[in-house]
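Teaching soon. Got one?

===
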Amino acid sequence: MRFSARAHSPSPSPVRRRRSLSYGLQSSLYSSSSSEAADAQTDSSSESEEYSSDASRSSPVPERAVRRTSRLSTSSSSRLAGTQTPSVHAQVDDTVAAIRLRTRHHDPYEEWTKRTRREAFKTARRTVASAQSQWDAVQAASRERDVERQGAALKQDADMIAKSLAELSIRQSKDETEKGIQWNDKRKSRQAKTEDVIRSEEEKLRVREMMERRVREEAERIRKEAEKAAIEEQRKKDDAAKAAKEAEEAKARAEEEEAAKKEAERTEQARAQQALEGQATERNALGMTMPDEDWREARFALKQLKSGPIARVKANRESKKMWNEIRRKITPRVGQLTNDLQVIMNISQQLVQILRSSFASNSDVYHASLSSLAKAILLQAETEVTAEKRSAKPLAQLTFNSMNALDGFSAVFWAKLCQRTGGWAIPAPVPSKDADGTPFTPATRMKASGLREETSPDHVARVAGIMRVYFSLLLIPPTSALSREFHMPRLWTFIARLVGQPALLQSSLATELLSVALEVGGSHARDAWGSQWIKLMALLYEGVMTDPSPLGGSGPDTRASRVRLQLEIERVMGSG
């Protein structure tokens, strides 16, 4: 805001009005005031200092112009002195004196006007400064209110989001609780049905055993009574001589029969030895192997893998870092498998790309990564397949895809499979010496047998989960040449070898693996091998029904595993 005053206004001063009337007066009018003019000239020197500062501010005529006028008037007076009359000369002098008096006059009104203007300007500046301060305060208060309002709005939004998250968490927890209850109910229902079937079969078996025992007791009683009667009758008829003669003849016959029996045994042994030699020759011609040979081959491949690529990768920091990165990529992808074929194919392609990228840079890292992939699949089988049997097929399909796409994965997977199962995949008992001839210590033999710090039911469930994946893998039609351990005939080989291993049949794990094998591939095997498979099932069924049974030993879980095997045999034989 600006304030201004008029540059010049008519002065009400009576002095100014009188002096303004004196310009151009005749000398006759100022004859009486010539003394005043002389006094003015006399006092001009004394008043010049007093009004020198005000003349430059208040006089409308600059001092320079006054000096110039004085010089002009003086020069004019000097020029006109000789030509003008005294009256004219006096008039000029009066005019000059009036002008000088005018320029040196101190006007109180103009001084008051200037002072008033300065005070008005100062008041205006204070007013502007006060108004500006008030405006700044208003702006600051407005900004504080905006900040508080915005903070309140943000806090309200945060509270709403927190409330929504809390409600979502509560809803999710409720859903998980309901699903857990549903799952427990279904599991209890399945368990109750299984236990009812087992109890029913046990009751049938008990009734059958009781009837057979009664029949045997009655037959034994009749036989004993008949023998007693025959002995009594023979004692009455025969005399001592006839009895001695008959005893001598019986002895001679016994010696002859014993000799004949020994000769038949030697002949049978020679025939069996020839048959074994012929079978060994035929196996070698067909590329077939014995169980102990398969175990040594798998064990030797595992030891080469650990002492070769894996040991070199662990010794090199860069290689170990690359290997750890690949392992961190493998494990979550194996855990993401579902029963969707498209998901299985996508995960298989991702794993193949990850491992092939390592093969281009470092072959040792590639082989160590193959071992990590095989271990991840087997660990997933131990945990997930035990809880859900349907998870075996996606893992088997992933293994099959990896074998077709990755060089050397078949041998690595077979070695890791035999390591985790301890020879049950062949099947073959673990010998007392390692593949290189080193004797096992109790700790190393326990590790080579696939045993962990676990209970017997946990061990059975873990190995059964792995073998379910293996049996599912055998049923996948091959699209390219695979190792002989992953062909369909390996199912026949597994059952035939296990039946011929009395030491393994005494374990409850044997009956559990037989029931898993029949559950997964029993129907396919019957369609593939026909009558030969039926004969093998009949042999197994006879072993299950024999009392005491040679299958499963005498553990607490033996009866349940034998009942499951019996039910699987009956299902396979009755589903034609």
